[in-house]
# Entry
Amino acid sequence: MKIGVVGAGKWGQALAYALSEKNEVLITSRRPKDIKNFVSLEEVLKCEYLVFAISAQNAREWLENKFIFNDQKILVASKGIEVSSGKFLNEIFLDFVPDKNMAYISGPTFAAEVIQGLPCALVVSSSSKKTAKKFASFFPSFIKAYVSKDVIGAEVSGAYKNVIAIASGICDGMNLGNNARASLISRGLVEMQRFGLFFGAKKSTFSGLGGAGDLFLTASSVLSRNYRVGFGLSKGKSLDDILEELGEVAEGVYTADAIYKISLEYEIYTPIADEVYAILHGKNVKDSMQNLLSK
# Structure
């Protein structure tokens, strides 16, 4: 199968590598890169199957100004919530692409390990079982791909876990210990499940690969950009300096803002996300941790 990958960051390149085991894969990005099978956007858009791997905050702009729909099927590999509107990625894409043509990735998958061909498992979610199964069939022998119809569960899990990862990085940076981190991640799972159920997600999704699996991975490893954001904040670094050092997008920074606004609007109890939001906007990390313990 001929597949086009939009976005040539680490995750886009890792997916292009993985999918090329069984398929012909082309890749493109805003800026030209000297990598295998890099082509123009126009050429990628001719592919019947597309993988979208650019920042969630840039999705709408890309769809409005770069995308030309020609009945392509799209697998969204990005994770996050649009800050300006509070919309999930599936809501944004459905303004441009039919629901049956859309699918979404979730699960514990660091790009650095995928591009080495190390084994992992993920979930392809879609309202169309046919579309989910088709995309799942493209993955290589070292990736076990499951399918699900719970799109909103995949969306919430993929976005929310990045916010909990920031909190976990803060926890470790403050040397609060393994007990504290385990407690934080466990309560984080409860919190993101509560948030997801409000929007119609299935409870079982949060105990699976896309929920607990991705959360445990992202919130407990220095390979996680969002964890490193939290760790840096705990050491008194400014957010701007941390993001400059990363040189990559840390979606949890934007998602924390989106969750905070959404939780206020719908009166959803989100104590960890609230504290992460406050820290990102200048609150002292020690005060925040005290706040969380008192709750």
